[in-house]
Amino acid sequence: MEDLKAALRDRCLTVASLPEKGRSLLAATDFHPGQVILSQEPYVFAPNAAEPRCDGCFATSARLRKCSACQAVWYCGSSCQKSEWKMHRLECMALARLDKEKRKSVTPSIRLMIKLYIRRKLQDEKIISTTAMDNYSLVDALVSHMSEINEKQLVLYAQMANLINIILQWPEINIKEVAENFSKLSCNAHTICDSELRPLGTGLYPVISIINHSCLPNAVLLFEGRTAVVRAVQHIPQGSEVLISYIETAGSTTTRLKSLREQYHFACACPRCAKLGQPDDIKESAILEGYRCEDDRCSGFLLRDSEKQGFVCQQCGRVRKKEEIRGIASEIKLMSERTSSSTSPSQAVSIYKMIENLQGKLYHPSSIILLQTREKILKATLMDLQDWKEALVYCKLTIPVYERVYPGYHPLLGLQYYTSGKLEWLLDDTGNAIKSLTKAVDILRVTHGTNTEFVRELVMKLEEARAEASHNLSCADE
Ligand SMILES: C[S@@+](CC[C@H](N)C(=O)[O-])C[C@H]1O[C@@H](n2cnc3c(N)ncnc32)[C@H](O)[C@@H]1O
C-alpha cells in the first residue's frame, strides 16, 4: 500500500478511505478538462467471445490464426503471439488438456480468472516483474461484496470456481478464494472498448478500480488499445474525489439506482440520485422512460392518475387509459420478437421502423427507449445498407436527446456529432459537416485526448472539410 501511495503521489493523486464508499481516489492537484488523471495497463484481460479476436490486440481479421496447441485462442500474427506467450504458456497447457465440450465452457470470465492465477504465479516466481501498480496485492484489496450476494449467484460462482480448479489442476487453488475473486471481477472489472465505444473485451485494472462512481462524473474512463485512460471532463479542484460513471447515465434515477445496487451493491447518493422523488426528478424520469401526451402537438409528460386508471398529461390534462397503453406495448413486444428472426438488414430495418412508429405513439419524444430504437436503425442503415441520407435523418433525430441526457463533455455526444459530420460530408453538405465536426472535435479532444490517432484523424477530416469549403467559395467567386 505504501508503494502504491508513493506511485500515486508521483501522479498527484492520493487514496483516502471514506466511511460510506471505502477507498476513494482524490486529486492532489487541480485537474482540468482533457487532462489525463491516471492510465494503467490491465492486470489481466480477455477478448469478447462474440467473434474471434486477437488475444493480444483484439484485432478481428481474416488473417487470425488459432494457437495450434490449445486451439482455443486466436492471434493476428507472431508479434502478438510472442508478446502474450509468457502468460499463455501455462494457459495453453491447461486448455489443451480439455475435451471439446469442456473447452466450450471457457468463457471470457473463466479466461480472466485463469489468467489472474497464472499472473499471480508468474509474479510470485519472478518470471513476470511486479511494480507498485502491477501486483496481486492490489487484486487482494478489491471489494468483493461476498456477504451481499444472493444464493443463486453464490452457487454460480462456486461452479465457476470448480471449473477453474478442473482446468488448472493446481493443488494450491483455494475454491472459496476463486469464488470470491469472481465476485470481485463483477464489481471491479471494466469493459474494454474501442474509440467508438464498441466493446472489445474485459480487463481488470486494480488501481483504476479504486475510483468510485457518480451519475454526474468529473472524469471519464476510455481505452487506448488495452490501456485504460482516465481523463478529467470537468475542473477537479485539489482535494476533490475523482469520479467516473460505472453505468449508462441516461436512465431515470430509479433505473440507475437499481443497476448500481444490483451489480455494485451500493446506494448512490450523487447529486443526481439525491434528487429522487423531487418534482424535477419525477418530471425527468417521466420524460426519459414515460409516456407521451395523446395530443401530438403537446410536449407534456405524463404521470399516473390517483385512481391508477391511466396517465395524465401534466401540461394539458388529457388522460391516456392504461388499456390503450397496454395494447400498444404488447404490439411493440410482438414486433420486437420478430427482430431476432429477421433474415436481412433491410428486413431488420423495416421491423425496427415499425417498432419506432409504435414507440413514437407511446413514449415521450425525448424518451431514451425511442432513442435506443433510432440508434439501432441508424447503425443498421449506416453500416449495412449504406443509406447515408436515411442514416443522417436518424442521426439528427438522436442528437437533441443526447444533448438533453448527457453533460457537455460526454463521449457518446461527441461521437454522435462525428457521425453526423461524416454523413453530411458524404452527402456534400460541407457547411453543416464543418459545424458537426467542429462540435465533435470540441468534445472528443477532452474525452479522448488530443494525441490519440482517433482525434488526429477527426481533426484532419475537419481541416479537409474546411479546405473544400474555401475552395468551393473561391470557385464561386471566380
Ligand atoms: C470499483 S470499486 C471502487 C473502489 C472501492 N470504494 C474500494 O474500496 O475498493 C466499486 C465499489 O466501490 C463502492 N462505491 C463506488 N462508488 C460508490 C458511491 N458513489 N457510493 C458508495 N459506494 C461506492 C461500492 O462498494 C462498489 O461496489
UniProtKB/TrEMBL annotation:
It comes from the Eukaryota. GO terms for molecular function: zinc ion binding. SMART domains: SET (SM00317). The keyword DNA-binding does not apply. The keyword DNA repair does not apply. Residues 11-247 form the SET domain. Keywords: Metal-binding, Zinc, Zinc-finger. This is Histone-lysine N-methyltransferase ASHR1.
